[in-house]
Amino acid sequence: MKARTRAAATLLTPFFVLFTAVMLIPIGYAVWLSLFTEQQSGLGFGGSETVFTGLGNYTAALGDRVFRDGFLVLLGYCVIYIPLMVGGALALALLLDSALARAKRFFQLALFLPHAVPGIIAAMIWLYLYTPGLSPVVSAMHSGGIGFDFFSPGGALPSIVNIALWEWLGYNMVIFYAALQAIDRSVLEAATVDGASGRRIAFSIKLPLIRASVLMVVLFTIIGSLQLFTEPLILNTGSGSAVSSSWTPNMYAYTAAFSRNDFGLAAAASVLLALTAALLSFVVTRLSGRKDAHA
Amino acid sequence: MNRSWSRTTLSIAGAVTALAVVTACGGSGDDSADGGTGTAAKPVTITFWGWAKGTKEVVDAFNASHKNIRVKFEETPSGNAGGYAKISNAIKAGNAPDLVSVEYPQLPEYVSQGGFQDIGKYFTEESRKKFLPQAVEQTTLGGKTWAVPFDAAPQAFFYRKDLFAKYDIAVPKTWDEFKAAAEKVEKADSKARIGTFFPDDPTTFEAMVWQAGAQWFKAEGDTWKVNTTDAATTKVADYWQGLIKGGLVRTDASFSPAWTNSLKTGGTIGYLGASWGGGVLGGTLPEQSGKWAVAPIPTWDGKPASGMLGGTTFAVPKNSEKAAAAVEFATWMTTTEDGIKARISSGTSSAFPAALSLRPAAKKAFDTKFYGGQDIYQVFEDGGSAIAQGWTWGPSMGTTNTTLKDQFGKLAGGGTTVPDAVKAAHDATVAELSKRGLKVEG
Amino acid sequence: MSTTTRKNPWLSKAAVNGALLLAVLYMLFPLVWLVTAATKDTGSLLSGDTFSFKGFDLSKNLSDIASYGDGVYFRWYGNSLLYAGVGAAVCSLICVAAGYAFDKYEFRGKEKLFGLVLLGVLVPTTALALPMYLLASKLGVVNTYWSVLIPVLVNPFGVYLARVFSAGYIPGEALEAARIDGAGELRTFFSIGLPMMMPGFVTVFLFQFTAIWNNFFLPLVMLSDRKLFPLSLGLYSWNTNTHSEPSFYPLVVTGSLLAVIPLIVAFVSLQRHWKAGLTAGSVK
């Protein structure tokens, strides 16, 4: 028995050593750093010294309108993005799974392909596609009478949502499709024999059976949304877009660290973001768990 | 054959040895703790980060003509596009180069973080006299010298002289005339505009308020007096808000695809830039050679006046132990004819040196074919002497400019106004300085 | 008795396939644009004639990419292959070992430990990158290959997947048989367990490879020496140069195309595996 426990320990050690080094320690260090700040004196040309400030960075971040607005942006983003993503992926998966679809392998592959494109490149491609004068899309829209400006404040959210949808719809569709394919065919046959239409089968039978996948996708989509950084960064640095340098909390932390050189503030912002993610994940898993219990 | 070969070899070996002995003896013996400025036998290698046009040619020229110092050049993204973050990271990690490019606005922030070292020992009073006083003013902070100025960047107005002639527009001398000209351009061609307000480049706006006589930062004793909403700034902010609201200027980001595209298609026929913009335009629009001209920037009262739009200096990060060599290289770049010639002959630079004596050499080296042979350096010269004195960059330009940039980004959709953006920048600046523990008034 | 739908079956079929086709058009159109844009020179790219072949100069774009910065693009490619290839391989081994251990062994606090792993899945990795940078900065390992390689070796979701695969692919009897034959535990893992769950290993490897290849925030924060950049960061740095040097635009576009092709090829040819992985993750 002892040999087995030792073997288990050996097999688990590499992972947990790295896990501690790469996840636990940085979080701890971030919390530690967030308690300090740099102070200068005089006109500030004599360098600075590190000073303990307790919750000072946290009050600074939470008191900063720009940081709070970042969370509002995330809220708006999730409200628009998550239904579109989950609904869209489900719709595509159901369409693919229906008996009427042809060339399923081709569709599956073609729809998944954007996911093979690194996020940064996807964002750059869409940046060019949003730019008037460069983009066939914008020209077509203008000649069709739609004067939508992707770089305006009103266009910021839709433009980012679009890029994220493009990148992840195929991926989530494949997850749903795999789950749908795993449904026992006899259940579906019974329903068809009973006279249920394709649409009824889809909504009343297939969907409930893949609940677990849907919840997993919702959870991961929320977590991913909270970390929004790459796509807004490209729009911020690449154009006169209304996306500011601190548009999301992640960007706020990044700007605090690398533009303002305020690492204490950046650490505090990161910790606050991580806490929000943990809280949301907890809530979502609890809610779904409770639903399971009632079902 | 063997004998002649070995004889030749011997004589070569002998010559080389003799040469080595001679140069070794002739080298300097500076034994300062910082490694000194090297010798031909034992050259000092310094690393240099920069992004200004023509830098590679300058470095090559220096390395070819100097045996005691070798410069390793690494081209970095331009400051605001990541270059500054790279410098800050390197300083923090302790592996910064020996010399960096840093523009005037960003210099005080680095100094206040203790990122650079005082180079007064090497960049002496004697050398400083060679430069434009406004430039030296901005590199002397807290009584110490922190950087070697490279260029003065007076403002200038670049315009399509062929289209101005076609639409029958006189070159504006005042801002009122500029506004009238803007309206005329739009009437002549509904797709054309006289210029652009860059939402991503606060320094263009700052040059405008500088020209109007604003003073955002004043150091009094050990207190910073901050006021970005003074009368001069308000006048400039209201003026540009009017132009933007009236759709008389574009609001594309500087050097963006949209901006370049509009220049190529005649959608934008003017560019309110600085001396260094001359070479950039030539590089971006080679097919429009001969169609552009340069005029002094419009002013409020018709008399010459200008701010400085950017402008580069060279500073030594604090951990470098080769400050002497670094400053020698920097001084060579900024005060010698060879230095300036190498840069400008590269074809993409139209740098206007802060060192007064270099102006003729710079002018001579610049190929003005793109501007139809016009003496654009004379325009720069007039602008340079009209740069308003007394402007100070505060130690928080990172925060100030980021806020301005973020706010300006909302201008296009009517999400904010220029005056409101400036006020937001004011508040953010005061908050930042207070957070750092500095005494602020404003 | 079965109900026949009154609707024309062909119409429904057209609707379903039509909708799917529209979705495919949306997905593929930017990639088609990328292909045509990569063939253009700066002038034509910036004048917006996108779907024509005006200004065709693919060979110049390719040679510019190869020569710029002394071939730094190839260096970036190599770096990406290093980070993603070596990183994913080592990470998969670590994940598979841990997943196997969780699945096949019993010990005190096992499920609590596994709960910790699951918690790790929920932590936003970008929220970790900055603290990791600050820590690495303190330790002086910033701007090195290790600063990017070490963090990517950790993949809690991979451990979860590996546990699922281990349960599915390795019957307990096989291990018992090995034990009776006198084989040590670790030997059993390497010579019997691992080969049996190879499909699972490949799946974890593929996922992690993609994740590392696409990783942007971590290298952005950790690296400032251009020679260490992965492709994503290198192309981004070129993109930021386009501001003052429009001639970088073709470099970015063509470089992006070249960066995307291998992944697309890999995904097309290895369809079986990633579909298996997504299945395992969703169904179990």
| The CATH top-level class label of the largest domain in chain B | Alpha Beta
Note the beta-strand portion of chain C.
under 5%
- The CATH topology of the largest domain in chain B is given as D-Maltodextrin-Binding Protein, domain 2
Helical region count of chain B? 18
By secondary-structure content and strand pairing, the structural class of chain C works out as mainly alpha
By oligomeric state, this entry counts as heterotrimer
Radius of gyration of chain B: 24 Å
The residue fraction in helices of chain B comes out at 40-55%
Strand count, sense and barrel status of the largest sheet of chain C are:
none
Structure description:
The complex is a heterotrimer of chains A (295), B (442) and C (284). Chain A has 13 helices and two strands. Chain A has helices spanning 2-33, 56-63, 65-97, 104-112, 119-130, 136-143, 153-181, 185-193, 198-209, 211-226, 230-238, 249-258, 263-294; strands at residues 36-39, 49-52. Chain A has a two-stranded antiparallel sheet. In chain A, helix 10 packs antiparallel against helix 13. The longest helix of chain A is centred in the N-terminal third of the chain and has 33 residues, at 65-97. Chain A starts with a helix and ends with a helix. Chain B is α/β, with parallel strands linked by helices and 442 residues long. Chain B has two domains: 23-151 and 311-365, 3-Layer(aba) Sandwich (D-Maltodextrin-Binding Protein, domain 2), CATH 3.40.190.10; 155-309 and 378-441, D-Maltodextrin-Binding Protein, domain 2, CATH 3.40.190. In chain B, the strands form four sheets. A five-stranded mixed beta sheet of chain B has the order 2-1-3-12-6, with helices on both faces. Chain B has a three-stranded antiparallel beta sheet with strand order 10-7-11. In chain B, strands 8-9-13 form a three-stranded mixed beta sheet, covered by helices on one side. The radius of gyration of chain B is 24 Å and the shape is globular. The termini of chain B are far apart. Chain C is mainly alpha-helical and 284 residues long. Chain C has a single domain, classed as MetI-like fold, CATH 1.10.3720.10. Chain C has helices at 9-38, 42-46, 58-67, 72-104, 110-122, 125-139, 145-149, 156-169, 172-180, 185-196, 198-214, 217-222, 231-241, 248-269, 271-283. Mean pLDDT of chain C is 82; it is low at 1-6. Chains in contact: A-B, A-C, B-C. Chains A and C meet through helix 1, helix 3, helix 4, helix 5 and helix 7 of A and helix 1, helix 4, helix 5, helix 6 and helix 10 of C.
